[in-house]
Amino acid sequence: MAYPKINDVGWVFRESFDSVSSVIDNGGTLDPASTVSGGFMTCVASGVDYNKYFYWMWETGFSIMLWMQANVSVPDTTYRRFLSYRIDADHTLIAAVRRSDGTVILQLRTASGSNTLAIISGLTLNQPILLTLTYDGTNFSVYEDDSLLATTSALGGSVIGEPSSNLVLGIGKGPTASFAGVISEVQVFDRAISLEAIGDIYNQTIFSEVDDSKALVSLPLRSNYFDGSDQVTDNIGSPGGTAQLGDGTTSSTFPTQLAPHGMNFDGGDYLSLDSGIVDITSNFTVIAQVIKEDKGATSDNDRVFSFIDDADNGFQFIYDQTTGKYAVYLRIAGSNIINSLTYGSYDEERIIHLSYVVSGGTGSFYRNGVLVETDGSTSVSLGGTSGYDIGRRADGTSTGFFKGSLFKTNIFGAALTETQIKWLYSKDERLLNI
């Protein structure tokens, strides 16, 4: 199933000017000097006034997207308001552009006193652009098309001009300097959407649901039952390798050891895959639902995924005890592409959905479907022995074994998008009933 990405992002207000005349579909009213034709609203000291109040915007964060075009007019040095919004004197938003050079001023007032976030940047004139404003409760950001222009979390003084009305496009109600240009669509979201989501909307990316059968490796859910013995054994299908148990035996099945719906690793078990089952020099994605148990070791660097071709080419996804964080290392042709980056404190004794996407030499880490920025680095060793393993370091170092349970483990030979990761997390969460 495939559908436009916008459907998955989830907007709370949307207006496109393609079939309206004097009254806007979503409850707004055109200023008589504005015209709507061919999907565009042309503003000449005019625009549209909506009877809309989104009181949650300052509490939950928001995003506002405008498809618009302002044409250059060198004598016009006035900052012309193309977006304004007011709940009360302490909660206002103003966006204004100067047509002489494209300089834009954006101001968001979040409370009384010196609580104004302000951005001055530059917009492209004489061509259509997608302008996006986001606020996540701390950071106020502006994007043009699929690129970040500026962001700030620094609070300042008063606003440049107090808006006097609810959500307004193109009309400079208080102050009166109105926009002169074209607006084709406005969208309001109930959260600060990510740069990747903005890029998908701008590029009209089509989202395709992910089929587990298309994965290079897909380890399904295991049944939760008790057969009266110490462990139960379920067939894991054909992962392209064998299950290696801690006692040195190998098997085409894997003991779940009474783990609910998962494979249990006791600190000596691992799954050995066919070497090169995934090309780590290209784009790929690894995913697993994980419950990490504490081994009580002094160097508890558990490997979830360890793919090694040789000393110059390898990928490691680990729980790094040195920092207490998730960590990833990717080395290709002797160069550290992802240089032992960390991604926040790791979780123990609870089920967590972990994903890592490698795309074009950069890495993206997701925890429970949410993108997590890197927060430092550590020292991660590849080891000198080749192998593609789940649950241990390929050279068999004892501190590299994983202890805990893995659920819904997948490896894809492609870089999944943020929306696909979120969709898989939501689907797996429902499937595991957590």
Structure characterization notes:
With 434 residues, the protein is mainly beta. The chain has two domains: 2-208, Sandwich (Jelly Rolls), CATH 2.60.120; 212-432, Jelly Rolls. Helices cover 7% and strands 46% of the residues. It has helices at 6-9, 57-60, 195-202, 418-432; strands spanning 2-4, 11-16, 29-30, 35-37, 40-44, 48-49, 62-69, 79-88, 91-98, 103-109, 116-122, 129-135, 140-144, 147-152, 155-156, 168-169, 180-189, 206-208, 217-219, 233-235, 241-244, 250-251, 253-255, 263-266, 270-273, 284-292, 302-310, 313-320, 325-332, 335-345, 351-359, 362-367, 370-372, 376-377, 387-390, 403-412. The longest helix has 15 residues, at 418-432. The chain is elongated, with a radius of gyration of 26 Å. Mean pLDDT is 78; it is low at 1-8, 221-240 and 256-261.
Mean pLDDT: 78
Across the major sheet, the strand order is 22-21-25-35-27-28-29-30-34
Strand proportion: over 45%
Counting DSSP E segments of at least 2 residues, the number of strands comes to 36
Quick rundown:
The protein has 434 residues and is mostly beta strands. The chain contains four helices and 36 strands. The N terminus is likely disordered.
